[in-house]
Fold this protein.
Amino acid sequence: MDQVTSAQHWMAQQMGLIIPHLSVDCVVFGFHENQLRVLLLRFKNTEVWALPGGRVYREEPVNTAAVRVLEQRTGLRGLYLQQFHTFGDPDRLHSSDFQAILAQQNIRIEASSLLFDRTISVGYYALVEFAQVSPAPDQLSDECRWWDIRDLPKLFFDHNEIVAVAVRTLRQRLSYEPVGLNLLPEKFTMPELQRLYETLLGQPLDRRNFQKRMLAYDFLQRLDERRTGGAFKAPYLYRFDRERYAAVLQGGGLAFG
Amino acid sequence: MDQVTSAQHWMAQQMGLIIPHLSVDCVVFGFHENQLRVLLLRFKNTEVWALPGGRVYREEPVNTAAVRVLEQRTGLRGLYLQQFHTFGDPDRLHSSDFQAILAQQNIRIEASSLLFDRTISVGYYALVEFAQVSPAPDQLSDECRWWDIRDLPKLFFDHNEIVAVAVRTLRQRLSYEPVGLNLLPEKFTMPELQRLYETLLGQPLDRRNFQKRMLAYDFLQRLDERRTGGAFKAPYLYRFDRERYAAVLQGGGLAFG
DNA sequence: ACAAAAGTGTTGCCGATACACCCATGA
DNA sequence: TCATGGGTGTATCGGCAACACTTTTGT
């Protein structure tokens, strides 16, 4: 079988195994160069960008489907993944757009297929360490890369809205989510942690007060190493004490101001 | 047609109109006698209690389905309704339990029916003024009544967990949700508002500080009326300034302590 | 030497808490 | 008149925001 036939065969085979009318979509967040970024896929032979998403198998928990889909479509594993909203409007996708994209890959599926029928999507967001990740596109996509959250193209279906809701939800949950642990590398400096929270909050924070408060939470371990290379005083490296971090987030959460 | 045949016919007819594998379930919260309560239905000829839930029509937004199902099954309209979580484990319902309940009503449906297949449920919670409501059971139920949140029976399927997640979510969102506006009557006293928040938070609050803070938010209008009837000084009645209330919840939310 | 950035300390204000006192009402 | 609960005022305490100075490093 050539590649096209293989892909078509694969899709047809999937149809019998999945739950109709249901999908999952994942908003993968990363943090790089002081910007919040999202991982997007570009459909083969098109300029159409979309969130990594997929179908749920008949006997598979929806949460598990989100993990599997993410691995199949981007190669990412073991992520911090949270369900945040379910998108259930009947006009959230337009089958003609979808058919056009498949046509670009010479995949032909009857217009009556359940694939083109109304679909409800359960939205998840993931927090990943940007550097740890080498995303790889799957067989439906040409490219898989990070996009600045402030500068997204027009996305497939209602994916722009899904991203927007994910960002809003993440902001709301900021005090209770382990964003530092999951978006930063194992070792990081205090200014790096501060940039992260500043970016997510959308407002600058006082350097000294921020440091005092974070240290007061007592979930950071200062290492003996420092980050060298800059034209300035080398900052200390820190690491999370995961237990204490979780405990603080659980009880009351963080505060900013 | 007798009642049984009518009900069976009705269900059969529904099957062609609905999206398979998908349902909505509603956790209706009320506040009465200083307790948070949930509205439950008892299936006909059984002692099985369940949340009001139902199916989604082919062309119907899921949000709309939640509103409709709630009206059909309890008679309630125009509620404050929020989606909070989607429950997608394959073993969250057991078709044998469901068949047994339908059998009690002499409704017989083939075991192969999609009704008994795996179902993903989108959870919503509603906030309602207890006194405004006269819930009425539908044709599948014998009874519809309020239950104290702390003293629920074993519910249908995973509905106990759904309620638990709803309560947890409501607590988390407490500072940003218009719980006062929707759970209390149009006019209410300061102590009543305080009892509400105390119950939801699970901790007592200082009477004087609470009053000061609420008035400082400037979203309460004190009326010239007082609540008489108690063996004590008659408290003032208040009403929400809806715009200001919404504005405060939007920006920063409420604080307690 | 200088600029840029990081580490640490101090002050003062605001706001929340912990109070006390008085008032209204029904029994 | 007494018990109960509601309305209002005040003093204190602590935490957080605002701010300054020193230290380190590369150029």
Observations:
- The longest strand of chain B covers residues 18-32.
- Chain B has two domains: 3-172, 186-250.
- Strands of chain B lie at 18-32, 35-43, 49-50, 53-57, 80-87, 120-127, 141-148, 188-189, 220-226, 236-240.
